[in-house]
Amino acid sequence: MFAASGVTRTYNTSPGTRTVTSLCSNSHGRRALKFGQVSFPLSPETTRDPVATVVAPVHMTGFARRTPMNVVSVSSGFVAATSEGDKVPTEVLFAVAVASCGAFAFGYHLGILNGPLGQIALDLGFDSNPFLQGLVVSSCLAGAAAGSLGGSGLADSVGRKKAFLVDCVPLLAGAVICALASSASMLVFGRMVVGLGIGLSSALVPLYISEISPTHLRGTLGSVNQLMICVGILAALMVNVLIPATSWRTMMFLAAIPAAVLGLGMTACPESPVSPTDGDAGQKVSWDEGFASKGARIGMVLFLIQQFSGINAIVYFSSAVFKSAGIQSGALASAAVGLINVLGTVGAASVIEKTGRKDLLKLSFAGMGACMLTMSLGLAVPAAASISGILSFVGTLAYVLCFAVGAGPVPGLLTPELVGDRVRGTAMAMAMTTHWVCNFAIGQLFLPAVGAVGVAGVYGFFALVCGLAVAYVDKEVPETKGRSLGDVV
Length: 489
Description:
single chain, alpha+beta, Growth Hormone, Chain: A, 4-stranded antiparallel β-sheet, 18 helices, 7 strands, globular
């Protein structure tokens, strides 16, 4: 990716930067960032980190002495250097937008079966088989777990950009197979193929965004991943409302659009600065080595806590909760939850660089725990029976809002920040595999748990998990706000 020793290669800056730069090797064989005829040595960590700070030791036209500069990209034919207050280069924003199409597809596929599943079962002849209906839904989760397992090896062997292009294949093929399905088995197969693509996306999108984003905006841009998942879910709910269930094949075909945009757009995006040609980045990293990384272990624990804090149970149970408050429309209930999730994530993106990841996580889990405890007591205490419906209604919306501002976006943002270049791909794969396995487990265990201890008991357990999460984050999770990727590890 960089010029060999003694050779200078010139790169054009992106729009909005202040000078033409080049990346070269200086007389000591070290990589350097060059402004005109003056070059500044860069450490190996800096050249791999697109957001490291370079301090200019001399005065140049347009630059004050010792002006901090952010190297915002050193790949795909350009090196962009901006001062701290400058706008993010268009190339970075474009790349984030394109990569986020994978997150949108993730959310859309998770939400699209909520409305038409009954009609699909009727059309394909398995309406009297609840096991097959459940398999249609859960097969996507199984495929996602497998996809996230393979995500690290793919990204580290061929690079992030090519991995995205590979990811488009199952996302496109799975959508088409589902749309053309003529039997339950064909539909299950299509959902498993889609799941492979979702699993790859869930690991690749936060990984890529974290590596191409400037330090001072990495939290905000990293939150776009979770935001687009929420937008994808909300879009699926809107499609459920606008398109009749009998046209479910059209809904499946629509899922191919974000996959196509991802594939076409990624051809014009820069490669991540952490490419497989940089040092040992292309060498395979074992899971044993991944487990040895504290950052990877923290990522896995955060996703385990995220899933066992009750978010999927809340979404699953939201229609019943809303009905208890007098709102009979299941679609309206789901849309309300989806909208709150989107608004909360937007709020998180706007404050995460000021508040910090750690404090936002603690506030989020504390709020979620308080909501769960309130709903649990409302259901368990006889004296609160008359207001249990409204408590559950308000508590559900408040819980989703608390989740959206911290526990939703932060784990996916924080995990790639806590590990070095060599382990980052594997760490994301381990974290997302934990996510999908726990997601599947919650789906299987929730109803049996409700049958055994009641909704109040299950909500009480979720409140306890949230309390433990606050203590864990306070003790184990470091703050990464304002620190370059090279500084964190």
